[in-house]
Sequence to fold (380 residues):
Amino acid sequence: MSSWFEERRADKVSEAVQRRKDREFESKLRREERREAKKEHREEEAQRRRDKAVRRQARAARREKTLTPGNVYRKGTLVLVGLSALASLPAQIIHFVTIHWMLFPIGPALEGAAWVMAAGVAYADERKLPAWVRWLLRGLSMGAAGYAAHINLGYGRSLEGHGLTAADAAAVGWGLAAVTMLGPLFFEVRQWVLTLSAATRDPKKRAEEKARAEHEKRRREHHKDVVNLARRLMSAAPYGTLQFEAAFAAAWEIFYGTGTPGMTPALHAQQLASRQSLTVAMDEANGSPVSTRSRLLERLHPAPSTLVYRPGSSQVASDLPPASEGPQKTAQKSGRKAPPPHRRSKGDAVPFHPVAKTEAALERGGSPRRIPAVNGHHHS
Fold:
């Protein structure tokens, strides 16, 4: 019996220990869950704060970008243009409807003509159309706006006696006329400013385009026939296969026979004459017409360094070394007979070079042989 009670007691103790361990584990697990939940909450709060800061920065960037002077000017001008149209259009409609109700479309058409022509000026600037097109559109726009302003001025003055004094009616008329004219004028100034600002954003490209246009204009003025032929060659070739510069070079060669643009037969003849004149001048400065050929031969066949020049003699060098006095004195002192001096005989010397003969003839005062010059070069 005692063993059963002991085992029972041991089981209860082990169960109590296990329950305690389970409670500790559950408590630890709940603490970890609460810790993880708090961490996730803090991370979510930090992410919300970061998102809010990013949205705030984005709004500030958009606001800064929107409120730049350029945007304010562009959008503000459009607002002024819209207000001027709203102010001037009702007076025109009332004026024509008073005459007859079927004249209602004239007012919108007149006001719309001014704005459409003003938009046409902007389109012409964008497409780089000729200047006369832009000035024609400007004239049409200002003409329509001027006629509308005249109608509004008359309408404003007609209000005298209808609850307005003469001064107030004149003010209304001149105000309507002013806004009618200033709307298209503001739009035109806006387009002009935008065009200038676009040119200043890339000044190098603008300067290059201007220089290229000026070069093409001078080329058409100076070489009109060649330019016309080059364009005919381009029109004869398949589309896109022949560029203008290649066509211009081919047209130049057809006209003047040379593949170098800018050179003509007259210029080639002038160049040849200038070279010949330079050759004659160099020959006169060097003293003889064969001086150039002599210098060339000296470079091709340089004289040996052992040649010794003797003034007044046609034989410019000796191939024998100078006689030494040492052996004769030695022979006299020793009593022996000195050997006879060397005597030159025919064939024991190297023949002279033709250049040396020519130089010797020049030194003796002989007349040099004239060598003709062709194209600035001497030929024997």
Remarks:
- The chain has twelve helices and two strands.
- The two ends are 151 Å apart (CA to CA).
- The beta strands are 373-374, 377-378.
- Residues 2-66 form the longest helix (65 residues).
